[in-house]
Every structure is written in C-alpha cells, then in structure tokens.
Design goal:
Distance between the termini: 87 Å
Oligomer: single chain
Shape: globular
Strand order of the largest sheet: 2-6-5-7-9-8
Strand content: 5-15%
Radius of gyration: 27 Å
Number of strands: 9
Structural class: alpha+beta
C-alpha cells in the first residue's frame, strides 16, 4: 500500500475501502454536499439573524432573500470540499437512515410549549422573533400602565429565560440563549406555524445522522458509515432533543460537518492538494467557531481545535495556519454577535465560560512555546520517544477508569445557595433520597452513558481510544504525518472527557442527558471503529469467519443495548395537548388586558407565552413580592390604577391554585384551562423509562 493510501485509510484496507468506479462517485457527492452545505447555511444564517435582529429587520421579507443568497453561498462553499466516493448502497443506506430518523422524531414530536425547560424557552424566543423581528424585544411602557408601573419594587417584565433590560422609561426584554437556534425555528414558524416548528428539529436530526454516518464512512470505511448512522439514530438522548426545540438539533449537524472538513483538510495537506486542504480548513474553522452563535458550549470544541492546529503546525502541514486563522476569526465574530444579542445570559454563565477561556489561552500559549522551540530544534528525549505511544494509550485507559470509578470515592457538590441546588433538594425529597441539594451527581456521568449504550460499548470505545492514541503517537515518533482522523478524535474525545468530568447541568433525567449528545455519537463511532479493526485483522491470526463473527458481536453489543434502552420511549408524545391548553388560555383573554402573574408557577411559565404567542401585555412578580401578601396587594392596586388610567384592564393570573387570587380578595376566579399532559420524568439515580402526569391549570381574576 502506498504512503498516500496509508494516509488516506488509518487501517489496513478492505474491499469496502478500495478505489471505487467512477459511476459510484455521485453517492459521495450527494451526501457530502448535503452535510457540509446545510451546516454552512445554518452557521451563516445564524450570524445573519443576529445582525438583522439587532436592527429589527428579521422579517420574512428581509430574512427570506438573505437566506436564499446565503444558501447559494453555502452551496458554493461546500463545492470547495473534495468529495470521497461512496458505494451506491452505502450512500443510499445513509440517506434512508437519515430520512427514517427524521420521520421517527417528527411523528413523535413533543409539544413543550411552556418555557418550563430550555426547549420551551427556545420556542417562545422563536415565536417572539418571528413576530417581533428584533432582539432585544422592545416593550412600550404605556402598554403595561407606564414607566411608574415598572418602577414598582417587585413588578417586572422578566421571567425565566427572558431578562428584563433597559429602564422603566425604555424597557426591553432579552431572551436568554444565543439567537441562532431561535432564528431557524422562527423560519420554520413563518413557513408552517406550530407544525413546521415541531418538525424542524426532526429534519435537523436527520442531518445529524447523515453527518455522523458520513464521518464514520470517511475515517473508518464506507461499509461502516451506515452502522454508525444506525447507532446514532437509535440513541434516545438525541431522539429526545430532536423531538423538541432545543439548540442541539441545530448545532450537531454543524459539528459533524466541522469534524468532516477537518479530516478532508488533513488528507489534502500534501502536494498537489494544498489548495483543497486550505479551502477545507477555512470551512472547518468557520463551522467550528461559528457554532458559538447557535450554542455557547461550542466554545469547548473551539478550544480543542487549538491543539489540532498546533500539531499540524509542528508537522508543517499546509492547512495549519489557515485553520487557526479561520477558527479564530469565526469565533471572534460569533462570540461578538452573541454578546450583542445575549449579554445577560453570557454574564450569568461567566463562571462556566471563564475556565474554558482560560483553557484556550493556556493552550495557545503552550502552542506558541512549542512552535518556538521546534523552530530552534527542540525534540522529545529519546526515552520519551520510545515510550510515548504506550504512555498515551495507557493514559487514556487510566483516565477512563478514573472517571468510571468516581462514584466509589467522590461526591461532587456545588454551592447549596445555587438555584439548582434547591431544585435537586426537592427532587431528592420526592424520590426518597438523602436530601443534599448541593450534589451535582457529576461523578455518575459514565453511568449515564452506560444507560443508553451499555457498558460493553463503553469498554470497547475505551479500547479503540487507546489504540488510536497509540497509532497517532507512533506516527509522531516515527516522523510520519499524523493520521487524518487525529483532528476529529482530539475534538470529539476531548469534548467527551470534559463533559464527563463536568457536565454542568441540573442532574435530572432524561433532561440532563442532552449533555451527552456529543459524547454518545463519539462512543458510537469509536465502537464502530473497534469492529472495523477486528474485521481487518490479518487472517493469519484468526480465521476470516472468526473476524466477521467478532465484528458482528461488537456491532450487536452497541445496537442491542441502545435499542432496548430507547424502546420504552419509542412512541412517546411528551406534553401532547399543551398547544391546545395554551390556545384555550389565549382565547380567554380580551383586547386591552394586561396580565399580572401572582403565583410562582404563573410567573415561571406564562409571561412570555402570553406576551409573545397570545399577544397579551404581561407583567410578573418577583418571589420577594409574592411572599409578602400586604406588599403584593398594594402593588396590585398600583398596577390596576395605572393600567386603567391608560384604558386597559388588569387580569390576575395564577397557575398553582386559586389561592393566590383569593388572598387578593377575588372570589370569582375563572378557570381558563384545566388539562393534563404527560411529561418526562425527573429522576436522579435511575434511567427514566416512562412519562409522568403534568397538570396544567390557569385561573384568571379580572379587576374592575
């Protein structure tokens, strides 16, 4: 096998890896152009949405033409990526699996309309952006009774995931998260309303399955791509987020395409493909850095691109500088527009962002030192060169074992004063656990993975990681170019390890499992790589039939536990009926109403729904005001006088019980809606397998 072919394929080739007939090239062209073009369009569209929304221009008549132009740009950009042919059967199977994943998630989509968790928050932000066209959301003070109302202590426009900004004279509301996901869901809202928005994450899930399958086909072999796509499509945590309007369905296709272009850039680093490598590197940088405008956590993957750039630069690969510059520029632009549109949110999570920024700065400084030393002839000591491959492989195994063993020797806690600690304490009390609200349960993250793919797949993935580390280190020691899969491996495995160490999420399941949406596909691809390695063992060691049998067993060890874990959730319809409940509440409101939330559940769930979806002016109350009945009563009277002076009428809204209205002297509360839906469970120490009942009740009390 030539040196060029050894760079192209990290394992000994099998018939599925050999050069393909020219007639089969269309499969690779179709899948690659779709994956890269769609991802680039998602990033460019998100950046455009951020800029247009700042000027109040995110409307169908402006955004539509802009997105069409960007679609053409994305298509031209994707055309710069060299295409690796795929067998017709492999490409067709990838497409079929992607379409199947889309249909599955779409038919079983949830109706998480209320912003009780992030999915509802993204949905309400998208609805507001679709109708209001701007971010932040401008609010006329006269619509809620004038500036004096907003100056009342405890009266606010804010609600969970929607910050009150500005002044009482010029109030505004800033949604919590980056604008990218909300912007794309707002496009779906324009196109087909609630139904289109419900199907948008499912379509993006199909792109993710297609992208992971193509990535596996590229780095493992064409025959293995469909297996990786199938394993990814069966993962319940990915299916769960694909059923609702989270940011992950938008960001995951971008990450898959970014990793794919990293491979392409590394493969084309040698003459005469230098130009292609640089073009692919530009796209990789744009995709990796630009993803921040969709999901701030993408900063973690950006930081992990730094060592990829440094390693490529140390080997003097032609694409290293281009990759570094494009990643840095796209990161700066994406982070800048995210700050302009979501500064309050970034400030609130500074404690999580600063360690990532510090890690990135440290990685850059270390890279500069290594490059400076390399230019002056630095090299590894002979002893370290001799042991590097074994040390690196053993190090990964050790890290994996340490992470898996943490429940035996560590209990991870956070400050008991954190708002999430109070939530955890309440869940512990309801589930009969020892109440210790400061626990984050981060020591159990490896077990979380095992819930969904099984322990055998985790062990096989760890073995594959060690083998890949050994091969990459051996190439480095032998002064050979690093394998083209090194970049994706560093980013995906590094992101997985950082997530396992510090998931940074309220640990109730299945909600918390959305933190695993990068780690789980990584496990899938590594397990598939393990099966591929076994199938390619020389038949002198084992009979070919044994190789095949072991590979099939490895595939079964991945697919069977994954399918069994997902089976209880296969046809779930989470919070089905919530749209109807919300529509009923909207119908109960009248022109000129100003809704005022007077209990905790109403304040948590309904302000932005009434304001953005129902078109009703809405105010909320802080917990401090609600806990002081005399102050609350006085504040309600002030709001009533101010609103009536402007020609409106105050409607008090309660969602816990009618008690809040009765304490304010209203005896004739109207039940606007009394419904029950099924929501996801909230378990701390067990894998969820069923839904639980969620009552939705709203009581209205009209003043005057």
């Amino acid at each position: 096998m030539s040196s060029r072919e050894s760079r192209r394929y990290p394992y000994a080739p099998d018939p599925g890896d050999l050069p393909l007939r020219r007639g089969e090239a269309w499969g690779g062209w179709l899948v690659t152009r779709t994956v890269v073009g769609a991802a680039l369009w998602l990033v460019l569209g998100s950046l455009a949405a951020a800029l247009l929304s700042l000027g109040g221009l995110w409307s169908p008549w402006v955004a539509g033409p802009v997105l069409l132009v960007l679609a053409v740009v994305a298509g031209l950009g994707a055309a710069l990526v060299p295409v690796r042919p795929l067998p017709v059967w492999s490409a067709a199977l990838l497409v079929v699996l992607a379409v199947g994943a889309t249909a599955w998630a779409g038919v079983t989509h949830s109706e998480q309309v209320l912003p009780r968790r992030d999915s509802g928050s993204y949905l309400q932000s998208a609805i507001q952006l679709a109708g209001g066209h701007s971010r932040p959301i401008e609010v006329s003070p006269d619509s809620v009774g004038g500036p004096d109302v907003l100056a009342i202590d405890g009266i606010t426009l804010a609600s969970p995931a929607f910050y009150a900004t500005g002044t009482p004279q010029q109030p505004s509301i800033q949604p919590q998260f980056p604008v990218g996901a909300s912007a794309w869901y707002s496009v779906a809202w324009w196109v087909a309303g609630p139904a289109g928005t419900a199907w948008a994450p499912a379509i993006l899930f199909g792109l993710t399955v297609l992208g992971v399958g193509l990535l596996a086909a590229t780095v493992v072999g064409p025959r293995w791509g469909p297996l990786a796509a199938l394993g990814t499509g069966l993962l319940f945590p990915l299916l769960h987020v694909a059923r609702s309007t989270y940011s992950e369905p938008v960001s995951l296709p971008v990450l898959a395409a970014g990793l794919l272009t990293l491979v392409v850039a590394a493969r084309g680093a040698a003459f005469p493909e230098v130009v292609m490598a640089r073009r692919a590197a530009v796209l990789a940088g744009v995709l990796m850095g630009g993803a921040i405008v969709i999901r701030v956590d993408a900063l973690r993957e950006v930081v992990l691109v730094v060592p990829v750039v440094v390693l490529a630069a140390l080997q003097r690969q032609s694409h290293a500088r281009v990759l570094g510059v494009s990643t840095a520029v796209s990161t700066a632009v994406a982070f800048g527009v995210t700050w302009l549109t979501s500064s309050e949110y970034l400030g609130s999570i500074a404690g999580s962002l600063l360690p990532l920024v510090a890690m990135g700065v440290a990685a850059c400084l270390l890279g500069v030192v290594l490059l400076w030393g390399s230019a002056r002839g630095w090299s590894l000591p002979a002893v370290l060169r001799a042991w590097l491959a074994r040390l690196l492989a053993g190090g990964f195994v050790l890290v994996g074992l340490v992470l898996a063993s943490r429940p035996w020797w560590q209990v991870v806690r956070q400050s008991a004063a954190d708002p999430g600690a109070r939530v955890v304490a309440g869940l512990q009390a309801r589930q009969g656990l020892t109440v210790d609200g400061g626990r984050t349960y981060a020591e159990h993250t490896v077990a979380w993975l095992a819930w969904w793919v099984g322990p055998v797949a985790l062990g096989l993935a760890l073995v594959a990681t060690a083998v890949l580390a050994h091969r990459a280190a051996s190439a480095w020691v032998d002064d050979r170019e690093l394998p083209s899969w090194t970049g994706p491996a560093v980013v995906a495995i590094g992101s997985t390890l950082l997530t396992l160490y510090r998931p940074g999420i309220t640990p109730d399941h299945p909600w918390a499992d959305r933190r695993l949406v990068i780690a789980l596909p990584t496990i899938v691809v590594l397990t598939v790589a393990c099966a591929a390695m076994v199938s390619r063992w020389p038949t002198k060691r084992l009979p070919y039939a044994v190789n095949v049998a072991v590979s099939v067993a490895i595939a079964a060890a991945l697919l069977v536990p994954t399918a069994l874990a997902t089976r209880p959730h296969a046809d779930e319809r989470v919070e089905l009926g919530e749209w109807a409940a919300v529509d009923t509440v909207c119908a109960a409101m009248r022109p000129g109403d100003v809704a005022l939330m007077v209990d905790s559940r109403a304040a948590n769930e309904w302000p932005q729904v009434l304001r953005g979806y129902c078109g009703v002016n809405a105010l909320s109350t802080t917990s401090g005001l609600r806990n002081d009945p005399s102050r609350l009563g006085a504040a309600v009277q002030q709001v009533q006088r101010a609103v009536e002076a402007k020609g409106g009428r105050v409607v008090l809204v309660a969602a816990d019980s009618p008690d809040g209205l009765q304490r304010l002297g209203l005896k004739g509360a109207v039940v606007a809606v009394d419904a029950r839906v099924q929501e996801d469970d909230r378990l701390l120490e067990r894998r969820p397998e069923s839904l639980v009942e969620l009552p939705i009740r709203v009581y209205l009390g009209r003043l005057g």
